[in-house]
Amino acid sequence: MIVCGVELTGSDAVVCLLKLDRGQFSLPECRVRKLSLNKNHTRDDLKQFQAAFAELMAEHGVARVAIKERMPKGKFAGGAISFKLEAAIQLIGGAGLEVRLLSPALIKSTLAANPLPIPFAETGLKVFQETAFTAAYVGHMAK
Description:
This protein has 143 residues and is α/β, with parallel strands linked by helices. 36% of the residues lie in helices and 24% in strands.
């Protein structure tokens, strides 16, 4: 099964694909590391972002999307645009795509029970994809 981990920051959705096959993790080749919403944030821009995200998921056969949840208020609150992106991803219909929000507490407890099998530095991913990679891993491990 392939899980797409997502970190929403500003107008961007940073993505990382992680495949689990017979107990072995692998990183499928993916041409996209980040999807961005156009600056105007119009309805058409959101639809375009949603279509691009859905196309990427279908192209790679992704079964589940795991999004690192942002806090609605407080010091680490997410911005309004990131909540629009989250809604656009959650509302992707068809193809049986499951979308899960991962709370920081769930991420922390899952990583404590199931530590990452390799250090992130050895994955070959870009540094800005680390949170998305962690979300994808937790998306596989959390029940």
